Amino acid sequence: MDWLSLTIGITASLFLLLIIGFFSLVFILFTGKSLWDPQYPPVTGTVFDQLIYFKRLYDYQTNIARKHRTFRLLAPDLSEVYTTDPQNIEHVLKTKFEDYSKGDHNKDIVRDLFGNGIFAVDGDMWRQQRKLASYEFSTRILRDFSCTTFRKNAAKLAGAISELMRTDQTFNIQDLLMKCTLDSIFKVGFGVDLNCLGGKSKEANQFMKAFDDANELTYWRYCDLFWQLKRAFNIGSEAALKKNIEIVDTFVYGVIQNKRELLSIEGYINEKEDILSRFLMASEKDPVKMTDKYLRDIILSFMIAGKDTSANTLSWFFYMICKHQLIQEKIVAEIRDVMKINEKQTNIADFAMILTETVIDKMNYLHAALTETLRLYPAVPVDGKCAEKDDILPDGYRLKKGDGIYYIAYSMGRMTYIWGEDAEDFRPERWLNNGVFTPESPFKFVSFHGGPRICLGKDFAYRQMKIIAMVLLYFFKFKLEDENKQVTYRTMLTLHMKGGLHLNAFSRV
């Protein structure tokens, strides 16, 4: 018994010494970071705080931002600066673009999932992908091909909801939207018919779940100071991330292999409408050949841009218009007015096919409602860069070389100093001037980034979202299954709803 008591005493003492030593080390590392120097942003905590508030991280950041437009969290090796100030964001993303990069810290965190894709690189790799993507997005071929794809998949989605409505079933619209946009991005991006929405592709559904889980686990690294150690030992969250990435890789490499085989078939040239085919064609003339690994990284970047952003935004959009039924009815009235429909259309596919660019471009109120959704629920809630040299932000605060600088789009939408006293209200009219949509500065409304790295797929995203919204709202009225249920988000790179959005649909026709 004495030996047992002695062993417990020694163990407790060693554990106490370990804790004291750890926090002593942290204190030593954190001192010297200008904690109380007014030239630097005020310190509101350390990166350890993010672990405590992880499940509601963006609201935690918003509460701080209401007191400090620019603030710091300390880490042993760097300072993480957060800002909601539009002038600071313009400075970083545009004015001093060359002085800020993705930074080794950000690259290390996302590399396992996104590799050398366009969102995870700087310099020549970024320029090469940006140049190719910019050219392809500007072609009429891709624009027409994408619109046709969006219409077909919107009609398929409406058909699925019609069947669920007929059998009086409640449904998770976020799940349906994810499948719809996944089908669309694979057709437009890679020329592949997944039919994920039809439920016929088990591999596609496994891929979608693995990709979403990998997204969440990758973001967890920003708060987990021990993720590299866990990765080395393949334990915990890092073991789960590795397993999910293996599922993602198996699926994506299969897509690439199939595409290479198709392109080698004589006579297939006339069908090269998708982005992957055109990238492969372009790479034949480029000294930097695209390996399967490089193509894999590019594909996953398009995936998060084409699937997550549109599906997430539409999910929050349907949540908002279910909460605000008058706005839902205003959008329906605009659809009928713009399309000048006297008799109600009853065929979903026929209706979808008459949604031309001319019609879509006249939908000012719908465009405003989608933009208002993005203001409050941005597809990418937090994004950032790294200072390559010491700098002074427009608000007067200093940055040291190596500091991270993050802009919090989620918080910005809730700042009264940016949007007025009604900042937290869902009000599409704030975007309209005499009924015409009027955009704001991309550094105030930063959902599509800004400066040289502004989102190339912005118009594509709006086109897809408007087509889906118009088809669904023309044929169905939507209500929440439970008006009192609190809807919140999963903390990840993109703003997913936690647990989905469960709705009931009622026929309008």
UniProtKB/TrEMBL annotation:
Matching InterPro entries: Cyt_P450, Cyt_P450_CS, Cyt_P450_E_grp-I, Cyt_P450_sf
Binding site for heme: 455
GO terms assigned for molecular function: heme binding; iron ion binding; monooxygenase activity; oxidoreductase activity, acting on paired donors, with incorporation or reduction of molecular oxygen
Residues in the signal sequence: none
Keywords: Heme, Iron, Membrane, Metal-binding, Monooxygenase, Oxidoreductase, Transmembrane, Transmembrane helix
Pfam families per record: p450
Cofactors required: heme
Transmembrane parts of this sequence: 6-30
Gene Ontology BP terms: isoquinoline alkaloid biosynthetic process; lipid metabolic process
UniProt keyword Iron present: yes
Similarity remark: Belongs to the cytochrome P450 family.
This protein's name: Cytochrome P450
Organism this protein belongs to: Papaver nudicaule
